[in-house]
Specification:
By secondary structure, the chain is mainly α. The protein has 5 helices and no strands.
Amino acid sequence: MGASTGDSEAGRRSLGTIAVIAFLVVALGFYFLLLGRIAFSLIADGDLAGVGIGLGVLILPIVGVWIVYTSVRAALDHQRLARRMAEEGRELDTSQLPRRPSGRIERAAADQLFEQVKAEWEADPDNWRTCYRVARAYDYAGDRSRAREVMRRAVELEKAERTGR
């Protein structure tokens, strides 16, 4: 019974997160539409300064849509990998690692975990599972840029495995 209670609690948290993300995407969409309208009205005025400002303002929603799209797509990809790893029982177990009051894993413990996972990854660097695990270990160790880089590689490898390419 405890497992199902934990599963339903995780499901509620997940739905809450999805609702917040959906709200933010809709709010950003509305904001981008308003910016687009302002940009087109400035361009339509025909004044040289207005056209220049209008073109500048038009760039904002275009860049914004691209950022939202790539962020949501990356989040969905990462969730798919996390789900597959959990189903396979290969997710990193950090439950016994010492934590700071903030909830983050102690630096020495995170570094030790990273070294263990790095050895797995070095033995099989073209496996999306080891890439995923080392990306998570990088994240726990506080190296976010490398975590993102390796997670992108894990997503590419998993997609190639799934599609048979």
